[in-house]
Amino acid sequence: MIGVENNIYLERLGVTRNGKVIEGMSGKFRQINRFVETIDGLLDDSGLNSKDELTVYDMGSGKGYLTFAVYDFLAIELKINTDITGIEFRPDLVELCNKISEECKFSGLKFLSGNISATKIEKADIFIALHACDTATDDAIFKGITAGAEVIIVSPCCHKQIRKQLCIENELKEITRHGILEERFAEMVTDTLRALTLEANGYKTHIFEFIADEHTHKNIMITAVKKKKTADPSLYFDKIGSIKKFMGIKKFYLEDLFRHETQS
Ligand SMILES: C[S@@+](CC[C@H](N)C(=O)[O-])C[C@H]1O[C@@H](n2cnc3c(N)ncnc32)[C@H](O)[C@@H]1O
């Protein structure tokens, strides 16, 4: 559990005041701790717990609640030499987070202003993207896989790309007749395709319910840990192809990212 006493970043981010969790922020505090627990479990699963240096990226880091907590856990509690970079569109949030990081003397934690898709990443051990909008989650998964990350963690946000294309001409057509069901269904289809893409690239995936913050009901988390032995990728690509055909999906953004990479 992340300590609240003398915790500068929780205080500056408005989660605590005078060492106590502020009323109305207990959900966020629970979410932060649940995320740290998730990271802890994934360190064991992946074998990263035996490394003495870790490179982590957090894409769409926002106000940095989770980024700070992960740094605190890895660098301060576990004493792993950790380098974390948060990538965020909004320069005001980047400035705020860098200021707090300096104040905390978190020398391995920095935030850069930029777009996930344009960020060049050579190598990463852990790759995180929580509630990054629509296809920004796919950009993050693509970057994580191509950077060779041992662990990838995403919590998808909206799923517009697939929803716009759903064109079901079979027994399941009824599902898309009601807007809310169509939305949920598009989320399930998109995240299934994402998990299959991760599996095709040699990862073992797990999808479960994470704690949502107060601003969103989005609470699905996909974790992926690189396997030592990989199965034949074509098995997974065949499954992706069948699902797309069944749902009338012409384009799957994440798949296109890999296709463009192969062509360039
Ligand atoms: C809903 S917030 C989540 C923040 C944080 N990850 C969390 O879960 O607490 C999403 C953040 O991602 C940023 N974002 C969305 N798409 C992005 C992109 N393509 N590149 C960089 N940042 C992006 C937004 O500006 C926003 O701050």
Report on this model:
- It is a single chain.
- With 264 residues, the protein is an alpha/beta fold.
- The chain has nine helices and nine strands.
- It has a seven-stranded mixed β-sheet with strand order 5-4-3-6-7-9-8, sandwiched between helices. A two-stranded antiparallel ribbon has the order 1-2.
- Helix 3 (65-77) links the parallel strand 3 (53-59) and strand 4.
- The mean pLDDT is 92.
- S-adenosylmethionine (SAM) binds next to helix 3 and strand 4.
- S-adenosylmethionine is lined by residues 60-62, 65-66, 87-90, 93, 115-116, 130-133, 136.
Spell out the key features of this protein.
binds S-adenosylmethionine; Rossmann fold; 18% strand; seven-stranded mixed β-sheet; 9 strands; alpha/beta; two-stranded antiparallel ribbon; globular; 264 residues; 44% helix
